[in-house]
Amino acid sequence: MNFKEIIKDVLLTEAKEIEKAAANISFDIEKAIDLIINSKGKLIITGVGKSGLVGTKIAATLASTGTSSFFLHPTEAMHGDLGMIGKNDIVLGISYSGESEELVQILPHLKRFNIPLIAMARNENSTLAKYSDVFINISVEKEACPLDTAPTSSTTLTMAMGDALAVCLMKKRNFQKEDFASFHPGGSLGKKLFVKVEDLLRKENLPIVSRETKLKDAIVEMSAGRIGSVIITDDQNRVVGLLSDGDLRRALMENDFSIDCNVEDIATMNPKTLNNKNLLASDALKVIEDFKIQLLIVTDDDNKLVGVLHIHDLVEAGIK
To answer: Record's InterPro entries (predicted)?
Structure first.
């Protein structure tokens, strides 16, 4: 049995069904978009079985892209949760057959409260479709299942249609990356767009020496500071140099190396600094990568030391 061929056949079968649906968009998508956009309430997704599972994912996608949405199981709705649907809400009902008993049971109650209904089903003559204000056709000619019975192509198309609806709404709202990040403050994009240098800045117990400090004493400070470097400042706390472990290793290779020399003799003078602690941490990471450094010194407008940003701090914070 060639499983690679089976996988290929499943993927191609489902892809072909999506292509067919894309070539035959006959439903009134503009009406569905307008209903949702102009609603003062939420978009509530409901469905049973596989349709319910797909509906849960669609609700999550919509909620994360600017459309207030949640999933409601129709059985729970019939036993008290119908009160979760407000008069300003819209319902998106999903049932491939359009006849799922649990879903059909709540339809008269939705109409009783004049709740607009968007339906996803395969048959425009189904009960779900007849109750709907907008019917979205999700019919497929062939399921990827070898028995042509298990929901495979149809659930893939339903999910893709939900994605398409979400994208249309994003376009209509001019939904931007910043908006997406605001719904994902703990995600990588949220960190990229919201975490600033100041949030990750090390300010306390920094290893600082003067330019006249002997190298052997600077090494002691370097070990105690645990950032792999020593910052050199003048008597006004202005940054004048940086001794890194790389500087130290290079100096050790010199024939005239002396541990009793002044730290400024082997340090990098006038190192790269940043005078904007409100810069996004992701932009600071780019500076670190561009200059091939591990430590970025942050100063004020007078070049006085404010703190340091280590590449390890950025990595641990999930900044990429």
So the answer is: CBS_dom, CBS_dom_sf, GutQ/KpsF_isomerases, KdsD/KpsF-type, SIS_dom, SIS_dom_sf, SIS_Kpsf
How far is the C-alpha of 187 from the C-alpha of 185, rounded, in Å?
6
- Name the residue ranges covered by the structural domains of the chain: 3-175, 197-316
Provide the token pair at 224: 């105690």
Q: Where are the beta strands (DSSP E) in the chain?
A: 43-47, 69-71, 90-94, 117-121, 134-137, 208-209, 229-233, 239-244, 268-269, 273-274, 295-299, 305-310
Q: Is 214 exposed, middle or buried (0-12, 13-18, 19+ CB in 10 A)?
A: middle
Residue carrying the six token digits 């082997």: 266
Q: What's the CA gap between 97 and 122, in Å, rounded?
A: 6
* Sheet hosting strand 305-310, strand order edge to edge: 273-274, 295-299, 305-310
Check pLDDT > 80 for residue 310. Answer: yes
CATH classification (class only), 3-175: alpha beta
DSSP state letter for 202: B
**Predicted model pTM:** 0.67
H/E element, 189? helix 188-194
- Which pair of tokens denotes residue 319? 């900044």
Question: What is the C-alpha separation between 122 and 137, in angstroms, rounded?
Answer: 5
Report helix, strand or coil for 165: helix
Q: What's the N-to-C CA distance of the chain in angstroms? A: 43
Secondary structure (3-state) at 168: helix
**Candidates 3.10.580.10, 3.20.20.150, 3.40.190.10, 3.40.50.2300; CATH matching 197-316:** 3.10.580.10
Phi, psi of 262 (to 5 degrees): -75, 145
Band the pLDDT of 27: cuts 50, 70, 90: confident
If we measure between CA atoms, which residue out of 299, 298, 293 comes closest to residue 312? 293
